[in-house]
């Protein structure tokens, strides 16, 4: 669903419950969401923690940075290195360093 959608602003839309935010867990490319100005229960730390758990690559919630840009790319690179090693693909130290350097530059 919406594979290129990176930012959502649903502020001041009279949202009343957590259920109305469930859709964001299906937005794989989402890195920033703004939903302030709705029911106060949606702005609780518990709700923010739940959103971050459901969307591990989310970087910004309501203007607050929760992780540095590139979290998804870092995860993908680390997973690739791990998968290659688990599949017994001969990954040289040099190749690992190249992948890690790309991660750092991005």
Notes on the protein architecture:
With 106 residues, the chain is an alpha/beta fold. The chain folds into 2 domains: 7-65; 71-105. It has 3 helices and 4 strands, in the order ββαββαα. The protein has helices spanning 45-54, 71-86, 93-105, and strands at residues 7-9, 32-34, 60-61, 64-65. The protein has a 4-stranded mixed β-sheet, with no helix packed on it. α2 runs antiparallel to α3.
Domain module tally: 2
Task: Report how far apart the termini are.
Answer: 25 Å
On the 0-100 scale, what is the average pLDDT?
Answer: 82
Enumerate the spans where pLDDT stays under 50 for 5 or more consecutive residues: none
Based on CA atoms alone, the radius of gyration comes out at: 17 Å
Structural class: alpha/beta
Strand order within the widest beta sheet = 1-2-3-4
Give the helix tally: 3
Beta-strand percent range: 5-15%
The biggest sheet, with number of strands, parallel, antiparallel or mixed sense and barrel status, is: 4 strands, mixed
How is this structure best summarized?
The protein is an alpha/beta fold and 106 residues long. It has helices at 45-54, 71-86, 93-105, and strands at 7-9, 32-34, 60-61, 64-65.
Which terms summarize this structure?
four-stranded mixed beta sheet, 3 helices
Describe the secondary-structure layout:
Layout: E1 7-9, E2 32-34, H1 45-54, E3 60-61, E4 64-65, H2 71-86, H3 93-105
Helix pairs in contact: 2-3
